UniProtKB/TrEMBL annotation:
PANTHER family for this protein: UNCHARACTERIZED PROTEIN YJBQ-RELATED (PTHR30615), UPF0047 PROTEIN C4A8.02C (PTHR30615:SF8)
UniProt cross-references to Pfam families, sorted A to Z: YjbQ
InterPro entries assigned to the protein according to its UniProt record, in alphabetical order: UPF0047_YjbQ-like, YjbQ-like_sf
Protein family: Belongs to the UPF0047 family.
Parts of the chain that traverse the membrane: none
Protein name: YjbQ family protein
Recorded superkingdom: Bacteria
């Protein structure tokens, strides 16, 4: 059995939920791994991101967003409204704020802006959808059908970020 690891770099836009179509990159990683029959796990290492399997929608709104994603966002906005102030959700608590302030002093790429941690909604959405998808590989291709696409979703709308999507391909 062959086991190969890969990763993809994804950039969020920071002003709205970011859906990144990673289907072609996942196909490429599977090809490069040389796995003909097995599994591919596509996973986010970030607690405000998800990997989802969804139909590609050709129609887009005036902002260029796929209509199914717009519909999903509208439903989620009703279920899990965006956190705009520290009183909208219990998160983040005082101890977590202190931890993040210390982290920003130790990690140069981490912003020292407390408004960026008002993202309880992003954490809840990511928990709801999960961090990964497992795909079956047959004859060197993921079995995702003709309209199935893989999206890396960054639910956090507070700042632009560089994200990492990890892949594990295993099989023969």
């Amino acid at each position: 059995m062959k086991i190969e690891h890969g990763s993809l770099k994804v950039e969020s836009n920071g002003s709205k939920v970011t859906y990144s179509d990673i289907t072609d990159q996942v196909r490429q990683e599977i090809q490069e791994a040389g796995v003909q029959d097995g599994l591919c796990v596509v996973s986010s290492q970030h607690t405000t991101c998800s990997v989802i399997f969804e139909e590609f929608v050709h129609d887009k709104d005036w902002n260029g967003d796929e209509l199914l994603q717009v519909d999903l966002n509208r439903i989620l906005d009703k279920l899990i409204p965006r956190q705009l102030t520290e009183s909208d959700y219990l998160y983040p608590g005082q101890d977590h704020v202190q931890f993040l302030e210390e982290l920003s002093q130790q990690t140069p790429e981490y912003p020292n802006d407390l408004t960026t941690i008002l993202n309880a909604d992003a954490h809840l959405r990511a928990s709801l959808f999960g961090s990964n998808q497992t795909l079956i590989i047959k004859d060197g291709q993921p079995l995702i059908g003709s309209v199935g696409y893989i999206y890396f979703v960054d639910w956090d709308q507070n700042r632009k970020r560089h994200r990492t999507c990890n892949l594990l391909m295993m099989g023969d």
